[in-house]
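Help needed: design a sequence for this.
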């Protein structure tokens, strides 16, 4: 059976991101709707959107539904797709937090570390894996679009491809508002 499209999109930009604030699971609104579709949404007829239940993702999905009104969307908000819980880092300026050598190297978070009062990598992976199965099942029937957060989209890639070498974590990037087609399951 031919697999339908798997599209991914990082939610639209927020003021907190612009101001270098760690967001994590806090509820922040979007501040723009600059979308880059590469023509991928325009060609859809039916699509299931799987999205994080955080406000920035919900607002992104609401924009997509209004803008692409010729597409029949089925929307599923999943708590399993929310951003990784960053505990004490959330709501704080990145430049202050990134000075801590216990959790950061060259300004990048050591993904295998658990932020104080945050979510462990193992718990985060387990949570995201629970959503991946549901997304894969839906993809057998129709195209899917996942609207979520950078760390969640990275973890989806790790889960789908059964990757465990987190040294490449920071090499995976998704731009705010850009729709990309994943090659998951393609030969």
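Sure. Designed sequence:
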């Amino acid at each position: 059976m031919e697999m339908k499209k798997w599209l991914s999109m990082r939610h639209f930009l927020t003021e907190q991101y612009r101001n270098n604030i760690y967001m994590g699971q806090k509820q922040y609104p979007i501040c723009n709707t600059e979308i880059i579709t590469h023509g991928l949404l325009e060609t859809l007829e039916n699509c299931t959107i799987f999205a994080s239940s955080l406000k920035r993702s919900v607002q992104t999905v609401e924009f997509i539904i209004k803008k692409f009104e010729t597409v029949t969307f089925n929307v599923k908000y999943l708590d399993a797709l929310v951003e990784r819980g960053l505990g004490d880092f959330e709501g704080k300026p990145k430049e202050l937090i990134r000075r801590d050598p216990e959790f950061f190297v060259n300004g990048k978070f050591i993904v295998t570390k658990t932020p104080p009062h945050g979510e462990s990598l193992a718990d985060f992976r387990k949570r995201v894996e629970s959503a991946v199965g549901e997304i894969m099942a839906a993809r057998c029937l129709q195209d899917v679009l996942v609207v979520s957060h950078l760390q969640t989209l990275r973890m989806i890639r790790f889960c789908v491809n059964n990757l465990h070498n987190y040294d490449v974590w920071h090499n995976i990037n998704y731009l705010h508002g850009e729709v990309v087609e994943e090659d998951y399951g393609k030969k």
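The longest strand covers residues 46-52.
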